[in-house]
Each structure stands twice: as C-alpha cells, then as structure tokens.
Amino acid sequence: DQIDLRKEVRPYLLELAQKANEITHLVVLDNDEALYIDKIQLYREGLHMSSKLGYRASLHCTAVGKVLMAGLPATEIDRIIEQKGLFSRTAHTITQTEPFKSHLDGVRKAGYALDNEEHSEGVRCVAAPINNMDGEDIAEGSVSAPAVRVTLDVAKRSMKNLVVETARIISQRLGCPLK
C-alpha cells in the first residue's frame, strides 16, 4: 500500500525499452480489464500503438491480460469468460473457451504470455508477471513490437528472455523471494 508502483518500476521499464528498442508497458488488473498505468515509447519508426495511460484492454486477447488471467482461480476465469466473452479482435484471437483455458495453462507453466497479433494485426507482445513480497501477481510488464520486425521465433526467445528477466528483477525489488 505504501509503494508507488509506477515510480518503482519505471527505471526498469525504461531499461527494458532501451534493450528491446520497442514499446514497454506496465499493466494492472482493474474491473476485469487490463489497465495500462505506464508506457515507454522511445522513438522508432513503424509502430504507433493506441495504448496510453488509462487505456483499457480485454484480457483474453492481450499478452498482459493472459498473464493476469493465468494468475486467477478457475472460478474467476470462468466468470470473466462468461461476463466478457472471448470475442474476436483479429483473425488470430482465441475465441473458444477450452482452447483458451488450455492456452492459459501454458502461460502458467511458461511464466509468460505472447500476444501473436491477437489484439492488433501486425503487433506482437510478450508479457510477464510482476510479483509482490507475498509472491502475488500485482502487475505485468510487457514489450510490444511490429510483427514484421519481431518474428514469432524472436518473440519467443530473445524478447521473452528480456521481459521475464526484467519482471523477475522488479519482483525482487518489490520484496518477492527468489524463485
């Protein structure tokens, strides 16, 4: 309650943006949506995202949202799917309940999520959880990039490694025990 999350995370988000040379976000769960509370966009041609401070996105079609959902109990996941639905944002959005739940199982096991053009055509995003001192998922850090510049293989390897490592460092800074 005493920590200004944006202030604590911003230097790491900036470093991540510099290393990835892409857009970074800090996102929290709010009213069953992904709420963007910080964004760093260093100048680079080719990607202008609609995200901004206060932007809200559906959980099922964003990397940050999938990480947020993966940390919830099954009953909460079912409630959100029932209330919000799994509507299609792009041709790549997962819209069927069982495949989506299976996808969330994979997110839990992997410790990160990938948005493979599911929220916006031509944009890939990788997100990982940021945990507090009790090990609870309190926010998500992410990197977003144009799909033409970041292949699926690059997203799953180097971009994922940068995001997961940054989230781990931030979590430790917030008092989360070593994993």
Q: How do you describe this structure in short?
A:
This protein is 40% helix and 23% strand. It is α+β, with helices and mostly antiparallel strands.
Q: Could you describe the 3D structure shown?
A:
The protein is an alpha+beta fold. 40% of the residues lie in helices and 23% in strands. It has five helices and six strands; from the N terminus they run αβββαααβββα. The protein has helices at residues 5-20, 63-70, 74-84, 97-110, 152-173; strands at 23-30, 33-40, 56-57, 113-116, 123-131, 137-146. The longest helix is centred in the C-terminal third of the chain and has 22 residues, at 152-173. The chain starts with a helix and ends in a 6-residue tail after the last helix. The model has no long low-confidence stretch (mean pLDDT 92).
Descriptive keywords:
179 residues; alpha+beta; 6-stranded antiparallel sheet; 6 strands; globular
Helix/strand layout:
Elements: H1 5-20, E1 23-30, E2 33-40, E3 56-57, H2 63-70, H3 74-84, H4 97-110, E4 113-116, E5 123-131, E6 137-146, H5 152-173
Antiparallel strand pairs: 1-2, 1-6, 2-3, 4-5, 5-6
Helix pairs in contact: 1-5, 2-4
Largest sheet: 6 strands, antiparallel
> Mean pLDDT, rounded to whole units?
92
Please provide the count of β strands.
6
Shape: globular
N-C termini distance: 23 Å
| Content of β-strand | 15-25%
Which percent bin holds the helix content? 25-40%
Which residues sit in consecutive blocks of at least 5 with pLDDT less than 50? none
Question: Which class best fits the helix and strand makeup?
Answer: alpha+beta
Radius of gyration: 15 Å
Number of helices: 5
| Strand adjacency order, main sheet | 3-2-1-6-5-4
Q: Can you write the helix and strand succession as a string?
A: HEEEHHHEEEH
